[in-house]
Amino acid sequence: MSDEYYLELSENPVQFENASSVNNVFFDEANKQVFAVRSGGATGVVVKGPDDKSSVAFRMDDKGEVKCIKFSLGNKILAVQRTTKSVVLPDKRTLKLLKSQSINVNWYMYCPETAVLLLSTTVQGNVLQPFAFKSATVSKMSKFEIELPAVPKPAKLSLSERDIAVATIYDQLYVMYLKHHSRSTNSPGAEVVLYHLPREGTCRKTHVLKLNTTGKFALNVVDNLVVVHHQSSQTSLIYDIKLRELDGALNVHQPVLPARSINPYKIHLTGPAAAPSQAPVPCELYSSSWSVFQPDIIISASEGYLWYLQVKLQPTLNLLQDKGKLMDFLLRRRDCKMVILSVCSQMLTGGDKGNLSVVATVFDKLNQVYKEYLDAEQAYTAAMESGPSRSSTSYKRPVRTQAVIDQSDMYTHVLSDFTEKKGVKHKFIIAVLMEYIRSLNQFQIPVQHYLYELVIKTLVQHNLFYMLHQFLQYHVLSDSKPLACLLLSLESTYPPAHQLSLDMLKRLSTANDEIVEVLLSKQQVLGALRFIRSVGAHDNVSARKFLDAARQTNDTMLFYTIFRFFEQRNMRLNTLFTLIGHCEEHVAYFKQVFGENALMKQATA
Amino acid sequence: MLMISPRMASGMQEKQYTPSLLSFFIYNPKFGPREGEEEKKILFYHPIEIEKNEKIRNVGLCEAIVQFTRTFSPTNPAKSLHTQKNRQFFHEAEENYWMVMVVRNPMVEKPNKDGKPPTVEYQEEEIIDSVYGSVLQQCYCMYKLFNGTFSRAFEAGGVELLTQKLEKFFYRYLQTLHLQSCDLLDVFGGISFFPLDKMTYLKIQSFVNRVEESLSLVKYTAFLYNDQLIWSGLEQDDMRILYKYLTTSLFPRHSEPELAGRDSPLRPEVAGNLLHYGRFLTGPANLKDPDAKFRFPRIFVNTEDSYEELHLIVYKVRERVNVMDLNREFCEQLDSLVGPQLTLLASDICEQFNINRRISGPEKEPQFKFIYFNHMNLAEKSTIHMRKTASVSLTSVHPDLMKILGDINCDFARVNEDEEIIVKAMTDYWVVGKKSDQRELYVILNQKNANLIEVNEEVKRLCATQFNNIFFLD
């Protein structure tokens, strides 16, 4: 069961002194810092950030209950709020009013990542006014209205800040509204409604996440997934807003996976109360003392922990049966590579019927992403080569995400093991390899030689030479010198490989030397000579290897013919055998067999 | 090498007789070794009406000739016997199982004056051994495809079963032998491949693999389009004979009524609508018919090793797949799975077909005609043959030229080296034969007043344009 939990708390949480009557705990979302304020600061303030470097400890005078405490960015300035209307900066500093807006506000929410501030306005509180902060300027964005499940009469504040969260999903800013189940409407459960908030233009309601239940919920966003925690069932759901095709203008989403609890977490008790050898105790998940912050933070003030929520992808393999959908899901995740590769391995050894069409779908999905990356890379290279002159659109080198699964990944982690696997029918192995090659071709990705090698190896292993022959006949395995050489090596077991290899070398048109070598090794000296003449290279070719090969045939007439050919050529080119080197023994042999007079007269010719 | 072979035209009132089948018999000497039991050797004899003693005599003669020639060449006894009136072909199809085909030589009947009976002149040299030898071997292969080997039948049911099978098969098959139109193509027994781009080919691969995966009864698949092979899961030798059966027997039988008036082999079949458009060529004619018979012909493949008995299913959507095994449920499954997908693929291929045609240019009579054959993959291409039908294969050149092609082929078969033969035939035709490694090319050029050098150049040009992607020595 343990591999069913697809959410987990980070292994290295930020630990701090738990909240108590003498210790107040504050969290600053902008710097992700936890402030433990003991006795109003008199006995110490310990600030812990996401990493050890950002930890700070200091003391300050107890001037009353601290309501809020924060550092500015870079821990330069500390601000302490002790009353509702005043903020104290310990050093003597002045603040300057840059801009003022006058609006009636119920509550506010600030998103530090995007520097967007949301203000709740109107009596019901459901008209939200966003402001964007950018290098000391404040711009008012167009306001929008959150649809309430029921309009209360008389009007009263109906939208609470607890039901609103702001997060970036797939690089877009969304306002998430937790719309509780209402008896007046017929909806079967609560919903999370996503409002897309573009930098420019109007905010629109774009996605609805169906929770199918009621109760208390909390939201996180992890790896572009919306996570909805449900307290009463102690489970969480995840939603991928890209995982559904458009259903009208609005996307309605069901959870990607069945509801599961966060992976059980054990904490080591520390401090004076804990004995050193004490076993870790289970942490109470979904506790009422948990606070959830965007995008992925869960804080247990009572236990003194700050965790980052994480998605584990491995369990999704068994929870999502539809492999195509699973691939779509995984390809959008951050650390997806190894999981995707293991999905591939699993589906190839699963042995379900109709598997090949699944295999095809998965390969196509992978290669689509792979191709997009290759194209982007190519466009970048082309832009760089054309010079920075027209760099009006600044090209960024495309980032290779983990979702880019190239041929070498597939070969190393999936295909080479798979072809070696015992008990898999060779027919299926070949079908899978061909399917991968088909998919690569479909996306116009050049196929690497090692894949062809794998195909050939598999076919040869099972004596399927006729199949191999047909593949080569239709150029399914693209021409290359290495492939031609591989074919040559198969000649002893499959004689037609010789012809296939020569054809391939011929088509390459850059392999004339190789063709000559092949023919000479077959003692086809005349054939080799005719070939080299037909491509017009006979003036530059070395006579020696032809004469060597002719000698080896023990056919004196053949030797005579070859000798004469080069004799005439050299005469025409005005060179002697001796000048082009190392043919003395052949000249001597010629004299010995045919007599001195048979040699052409150099000088008088 | 240059050969000149002028031939005289024949007179006006003469009557020409083409070669024809005189007799055809199969015997096994081991079945009646003792005197007086000779009849037992004979497993099949055509024509059936021949008197018993004559059958015994003819079989005995063949036995004797083979035995006699064996003393000179133990492993390679006589393959044929030439006589004035006929020619006999011997083929030991399986150990001790001999097949003999006797072909009457073509002859000319010359009328005589004064009411005398006409003089018959046999043209003993017109028949080419290799052509009819191949026809005889083909007879065996075809038998084996549908019945398995002789020895298996004998093991299963003795001489009785074997003779029964032989009679049942050859009675009909011999009627379909058209000895007058046999030529070089029978020697090759080649396969015409459909030229296709890589992507479409891969799609077909993918389709075939999926069909075989989802219908586990399907053991092998072959994929053809327009009588041309695209993919064969069967081994080469089995595909060779199956291809022969499909293209010369099954397809013509089915396409003639529906495509009456189709004159050119290059015309694509009418596209039709792209809804599911498939049907079975073997087995049930109409799946909707509740009384449909789900019987498919049986075929035997890989008889050398695994000896598999399969059912031949031929399914067509303007091109065909064939696969194995029966029953209604299966057929419906196949129909619903294969039909729609195949229809889509067919339109892809058809597109390719039209591209090919555009590349090859307008269909005007070229200056040359050729036959190409590759022994390695049995690929065959002929612009000499119009098209194959159930009855005859039509050639567009004079039989004399075909005879020259056959002779050149015999010359090639004798030596293992690359060769080139150029022949000047009568009526301005030049015939060129080239052999490069395992490939043979025969070109017939019709160029008045061309000399040897020009002919040689012309053929070089042809090779450069038609065969530039293969290694073909010039």
Automatic annotation (TrEMBL), chain A:
InterPro entries registered for this protein in UniProt: RMC1, RMC1_C, RMC1_N
Biological processes per GO annotation: regulation of autophagy
GO cellular component: late endosome membrane; lysosomal membrane; Mon1-Ccz1 complex
Coiled-coil residue spans: none
Regulator of MON1-CCZ1 complex N-terminal domain span: 25-89
Domain Mic1: 333-574
Record's protein name: Regulator of MON1-CCZ1
Native source organism of the sequence: Cyprinus carpio carpio
UniProtKB/TrEMBL annotation, chain B:
GO biological process: vesicle-mediated transport
Domain CCZ1/INTU/HPS4 third Longin: 364-462
Stretches of the chain forming a coiled coil according to its record: none
InterPro entries registered for this protein in UniProt: Ccz1, CCZ1/INTU/HSP4_longin_1, CCZ1/INTU/HSP4_longin_3, CCZ1/INTU_longin_2
CCZ1/INTU second Longin domain boundaries: 218-337
CC per GO annotation: Mon1-Ccz1 complex
Domain spans labelled CCZ1/INTU/HSP4 first Longin: 22-148
Family in the record: Belongs to the CCZ1 family.
Protein name: CCZ1 homolog, vacuolar protein trafficking and biogenesis associated
